[in-house]
Specification:
mainly alpha; Ammonium transporter fold; 16 helices; 67% helix
Length: 405
């Protein structure tokens, strides 16, 4: 790999790492003030747990050689034989670039369980979920012989493995935990929307590394992914606000921030597989559909506190499936690089493959997470006491407060 590409991947890895505190601010601002520090800790602790688990066994199982494409081996446990001079994604650089993705994925789930999950339970849940859900899914899509990748599904930067998996897991965990005390009866407004807007800006900034860095080179594909990331976030912000105006009569700052993230989620799986106009349309679709999807929790009664299901699961599905419509190898200058979508004259094969892969990961993540949550709830308990919930998790879980009265 040339020095320019090496530098770009190193920078991209740092950008993705920076997304975790950005996500913490995004979620923290949406939480109630008495739970601000808890939300920051639920995100930041992932940067402590996930790297250790990844080095011990996660990387080896996620990207190790396998003949069946289901799970890797332990040949690279404790990073054995992983060196700095290996090419492509097989060396130390690839391992730690993938680690940044692994670190933010469980952090995404935290928004669904805000205000009510024991911090001790979260600390146990993160490594268990990483090894039982994220690692196998990563192998299926990105492993040397991952069975979904071999079948022909496309996921440029983690729409399926990161966002659909995290969104499905968030739904399962929220169902096991149950709603917050007073949900739909008491006001539970975001306490600091400036933090949420700042967090959205940091996420957008970091997402350039998330998507363009996934080209694994400083080349034309990275440029296209960079451009697509910009335009999809912008278009989704606008389409979300249009939905708000039409349904509620107001364009809100929370809607703008959420729309940006929805667009970034939507373009992630196809960032390097379509031209700019395709990314624009994906952004419009993701913003509008996610704006409608976040309202479903009130109809169906699941308390997804910070809209992880509506933004990440739905946005990931929208973007992943629309690859089958907008994939355009010609736009990227290599007609043989991958299968074209419907608009570029490809058949329905890619579209069906995208639907299949996304549904498989969604169902797998939901079922396994539901089982993990049920087992943990029956053994150590997932939820804080009612008194602790009323007092606030900052005080009950961390003996701290974010704000002095």
């Amino acid at each position: 790999m040339d020095s320019g590409s090496l530098a770009w991947i190193l920078i991209s890895a740092a950008l993705v790492l920076f997304m975790v505190p950005g996500l913490a601010l995004f979620y923290g601002g949406m939480s109630r003030s008495k739970n601000m520090l808890n939300m920051l800790m639920m995100n930041m602790i992932c940067l402590g747990i996930v790297p250790v688990v990844w080095v011990i066994a996660g990387y080896s199982l996620a990207l190790g050689e396998t003949s069946h494409g289901l799970i890797g081996n332990l040949d690279n446990a404790f990073m054995a034989d992983v060196t700095v001079n290996q090419d492509g994604g097989e060396g130390l650089l690839g391992a730690f670039f993938a680690l940044t993705f692994a670190s933010i994925t469980p952090a995404l789930i935290s928004g669904a369980v805000a205000d009510r999950m024991k911090f001790s339970a979260w600390v146990v849940f993160v490594p268990v979920w990483l090894m039982l859900v994220f690692v196998p899914s990563f192998q299926w899509v990105y492993g040397p012989n991952g069975w979904l990748g071999v079948r022909g599904s496309l996921d440029f930067a983690g729409g399926t493995v990161v966002h659909v998996a995290a969104g499905a897991a968030a739904l399962a965990l929220a169902l096991v935990l149950g709603p917050r005390k007073g949900w739909q009866k008491e006001p539970m407004q975001p306490h600091n929307l400036p933090f949420t807007m700042l967090g959205a800006g940091i996420l957008w900034f970091g997402w350039f590394g998330f998507n363009a860095g996934s080209a694994f080179a400083a080349d034309s594909t990275a440029i296209q992914a960079f451009a697509n990331t910009f335009i999809a976030g912008a278009a989704a912000m606008l389409s979300w606000l249009v939905v708000e105006l039409l349904t509620d009569g107001h364009a809100t700052s929370l809607g703008a921030a959420s729309g940006i993230v929805a667009g970034l989620v939507g373009i992630t799986p196809g960032a390097g597989y379509m031209g700019t106009w395709g990314a624009l349309l994906v952004g419009v679709a993701a913003g509008a559909l996610c704006a409608l999807a976040v309202r479903l929790k009130f109809r169906f009664g699941y308390d997804d506190a910070l809209d992880v299901v509506g933004v990440h699961m739905v946005g990931g599905l929208v973007g992943g499936i629309l690859i089958g419509v907008f994939a355009s190898p010609v736009s990227l200058g290599d007609p043989e690089a991958f299968e074209a979508g419907l608009i570029d004259g490809g058949g329905a094969g890619l579209l069906l493959e995208q639907i299949f892969a996304n549904v498989v990961v969604l169902v797998f993540a939901f079922v396994v997470t539901f089982v993990i949550a049920k087992v943990m709830d029956a053994t150590m308990g997932l939820r804080v006491t009612e008194d602790d919930e009323r007092t606030g998790l900052d005080t009950s879980q961390h003996a701290e407060t974010a704000y002095q009265s």
